[in-house]
Structures are given as structure tokens and as C-alpha cells.
Write a structure and sequence with these properties.
Radius of gyration: 21 Å
CATH architecture: 3-Layer(aba) Sandwich
CATH class: Alpha Beta
Number of domains: 1
Number of strands: 5
InterPro entries: P-loop_NTPase (IPR027417), TPST-like (IPR026634)
Organism: Bradyrhizobium sacchari
Keywords: Transferase
Strand content: 5-15%
Protein name: Sulfotransferase family protein
GO molecular function: protein-tyrosine sulfotransferase activity
Distance between the termini: 54 Å
Length: 340
């Protein structure tokens, strides 16, 4: 490992949706002696939300937010945020004895503009996976329901009712597909961004890891990427995919398992949420064809756009308060969308 000699820490952001394989990819990359990849720092999300605290804070959440906003409004908040992040990453690197830190936090899709403003020069690794497979993993791992109400058409009323009935955690997981996937897809052409497809990663791990290491400026010698190695660091963390603790080597068994895990109704829900256009754009035309041959319909761009409008409005309302949305706020959500 080479010394940084006072230079800022070398940070790489690994971006991808939850259940897309980011833990596996980060684990394989940190086999390299120059790289450390903590399970999930969530650091940049916390920095973006600096000053916003739980409404139960005894000092008063609104006062804290107003005071910090006033104070930070008189300085360059970007410089202050960069200084804090640099200090945190630098200390982590020093303790680990590494040169590059890979910050793998799946929900960074919600803060892409903030990441760009704080670390415009940082390399990104963007991991894409078949959305049907992601949905199947959400269902099997976290119990996320995917079957829509088939008795009523997709409408503002039915979707607003969905927001009222489902817990926030479930809606957030669905929002990853509805809102997060198109946002990440739009970043594929960003400079200093390396694109990885999960299906290629598990089929050819050595080649894909070597390609990424070259892009990060790492010496490729001595990296056995297809061997899982030890993942003890995950056992002591609350974050990251625990399933890799059970693996001895990378395998491609999960690539097609979604075909037996999802019902036709669930495939229809995923197709509606993501949209046939985006599936084809991301290279998953064959997967869409399989779903259509099973009975899935392409219900058009309007259905997907309706989902995006509803989820975007819910997300905006949800981000302004600490508790779940009330019935009145769901009614407001419906009113906003009808006006939009």
C-alpha cells in the first residue's frame, strides 16, 4: 500500500439497489490488499440530513433544524460536508491500513446529487441486476409482497389506498424499484463510472473484478476473485447480505431462480413498477419476453409513470416528517397527484 502523503482519501462509491448483489461485489473487490469495503456506511445520507433530528429530541427538532440551517447558510456547506467525510473515510482507511475505501450503501440512489456535489471526482461502480430477480430476492429475503390487487385497475385511488395500508418499510423497498432504478440507470454515462451487470459478475467473476480493479488503478496481482474468502466483518455488522456467509464460491444459481419464485401476478407487478421500456433499455429484453410468455402484459408507459408519480409524492411527503403518513396525508397525496 502506498502512503497518501496528506492527499484526500481515495473514495469509490458502489451504487446499486438493495438485493442487487452489492454486498457480493464489495466483498470480492476488497480481496485486493489496497481496498477496504465496510458493510454499509450510510455516511453520505447522514451528512445530507445533517441538522434534521427525530421530532422527540428534547431540544426541539424544529429549533435544531432552523438553527443549523441558519448557521450553515452563512458558510459553504459543501466544504464543511467534504471535510467531515474526508476525516471519517481517512480514519477508517488508516485503521484498516488500506488505500481505497469503497462506500457501498444501496440507498445512495436517494442522494446522487449530494454525492456529486461533495465528491465530483470520485469513481463510481454501478451494479445493475435483472429487476425480476431483485423483486424475487425482496420477496424471499424480506417478505416484501409483490402481488397487486387484481380486482381493481391501477389508478390514483387504488395506489393512494396502497400507501395507507402498507407499512413504510415495504413501500420504501418498492420505491427502490419504482424510483431508484431509473435514477441509477440515468447515471450509466457519468464520467468515471464503471458499469457491472450482476449476471456477468457471477458468470465471469475473475474477468469482471480484474476489469474493475484496472479502472481503480490497482495492481491486479494475487487476487482470487471467484473464491469467497472470509467474511468475518459481516458477522459483527447489522448491515450487508448475510447470505454470502454461507457461500464458498461465486455461483450463478440465482440468475434464473426468479422464474420459479415469482407468480405471473407478481411478474406483472414488477413489469408495471419498472416498465417494459426500462427493462429493454437495461438489456433485460429476454427476461421481459419470458414474463410475457408466462402471461404478463405490457400495460404501457402511462401505468409505470403513474406509479412513479405516486411513489415520488409519497417519498416527498414522507421525508418531511418522522412518522408514517396519516389518512389525511394520503388524501392529500391523492389530491396532489390528481392536480399534477
Amino acid at each position: 500500500m502506498s502512503e497518501r502523503l496528506g492527499r484526500p482519501p481515495e473514495v469509490c462509491f458502489l451504487l446499486g439497489l438493495p438485493r442487487s448483489g452489492t454486498t457480493l461485489l464489495a466483498h470480492l473487490l476488497q480481496h485486493h490488499p489496497d481496498i477496504v469495503a465496510p458493510p454499509e456506511p450510510w455516511l453520505m445520507l447522514a451528512l445530507e440530513a445533517f441538522g434534521r433530528v427525530d421530532r422527540r429530541h428534547p431540544a426541539g427538532s424544529s429549533l435544531i433544524e432552523a438553527a443549523t440551517s441558519e448557521f450553515l447558510g452563512r458558510i459553504d456547506r459543501t466544504i464543511a460536508s467534504r471535510a467531515f467525510a474526508d476525516a471519517a473515510y481517512d480514519q477508517y482507511l488508516a485503521k484498516a491500513g488500506k488505500r481505497i475505501i469503497i462506500d457501498k450503501t444501496p440507498r445512495y440512489w436517494t442522494a446522487l446529487e449530494f454525492l456529486e456535489s461533495i465528491y465530483p471526482e470520485a469513481p463510481h461502480i454501478l451494479l445493475m441486476r435483472n429487476p425480476y430477480a431483485i423483486a424475487a430476492s425482496l420477496k424471499s429475503t424480506w417478505g416484501i409482497p409483490l402481488r397487486a390487487e387484481s380486482s381493481q385497475p391501477v389508478s390514483v385511488s387504488s395506489l393512494a389506498d396502497l400507501m395507507l395500508r402498507l407499512p413504510d418499510g415495504i413501500i420504501s423497498s418498492l420505491a427502490d424499484l419504482v424510483l431508484g432504478l431509473p435514477r441509477l440507470a440515468a447515471k450509466r454515462t457519468r464520467p468515471r463510472t464503471q458499469l457491472v451487470q450482476y449476471e456477468l459478475l457471477v458468470a465471469h467473476p475473475d474477468e469482471e473484478i480484474q476489469r474493475l480493479l484496472t479502472g481503480l488503478g490497482c495492481d491486479q496481482g494475487g487476487v482470487a476473485s471467484s473464491s469467497m474468502g472470509r467474511a468475518d466483518y459481516l458477522q459483527s455488522s447489522s448491515f450487508g447480505d448475510r447470505k454470502i456467509l454461507e457461500r464458498n464460491a461465486v455461483d450463478a444459481s440465482s440468475v434464473k431462480s426468479w422464474q420459479s419464485q415469482l407468480s405471473v401476478e407478481e411478474m406483472q407487478t414488477v413489469t408495471d413498477l419498472v416498465g417494459a421500456e426500462l427493462l429493454i433499455e437495461l438489456g433485460y429484453e429476454q427476461e421481459l419476453l419470458h414474463a410475457q410468455q408466462a402471461g404478463v402484459l405490457d400495460r404501457g408507459r402511462e401505468v409505470t409513470e403513474l406509479y412513479r408519480r405516486v411513489f415520488r409524492t409519497w417519498w416527498d411527503l414522507r421525508s418531511t416528517k418522522a412518522g408514517a403518513l396519516s389518512g389525511g396525508e394520503v388524501a392529500r397525496l391523492e389530491q396532489i397527484i390528481n392536480i399534477a
